[in-house]
Amino acid sequence: MRRPWFQLHLSTCIVLMFAAGGLLWANIVPGKNAYWGHGVGKSGHTDTIADGYGMPILFRFVGETKFYSNTGLDRTDPFYKFDVAFLLLNILANVVLLTTVLILSEWLIRRRKRAL
């Protein structure tokens, strides 16, 4: 009896579930100090430090920008940067990683079945 063209083993689905959970965790947990910026002007300078979100491609940054005048710290403003193009690249990269895990897992299982 011939098997259907698209059939996944239960163990492959379990491995994919753990891989997807790991990628989800890696995208939610921030990378500390992933973005640093420094600017210099006539009346002082700015420092920006932000945490980055996304794995393997950072697409969101949340932090703060400190404005310094010649007399010291002037004010602190929130910093937020979101890049849709990097988000789409991140999604594509994660799909490629999960597809690679799927193909490798199925190949290993079918190779072992043929050897028996």
Structural notes for this entry:
- The chain has helices at residues 10-28, 84-115, and strands at 31-40, 44-53, 60-69, 72-82.
- A four-stranded antiparallel sheet has the order 1-2-3-4.
- The protein contains two helices and four strands, in the order αββββα.
- 44% of the residues lie in helices and 35% in strands.
- The longest helix is centred in the C-terminal third of the chain and has 32 residues, at 84-115.
- The chain has one domain (27-109).
- The chain has 116 residues and is of the alpha+beta class.
- It is rod-shaped.
- The model has no long low-confidence stretch (mean pLDDT 89).
Q: Low-confidence parts, pLDDT < 50 over ≥5 residues?
A: none
Estimate the helix proportion, in percent. Answer: 40-55%
- Report the biggest beta sheet as strand number plus sense, adding barrel if it closes: 4 strands, antiparallel
Radius of gyration: 23 Å
Q: Determine the structural class based on helices, strands and strand pairing.
A: alpha+beta
**Residue-averaged pLDDT, rounded?**
89
Total helical segments: 2
- Number of E-type strands: 4
Spatial ordering of strands, largest sheet: 1-2-3-4
Silhouette:
rod-shaped
Order of H and E elements: HEEEEH
User: Any idea how many domains?
Assistant: 1
- The termini sit apart by 18 Å
Portion in strands:
35-45%
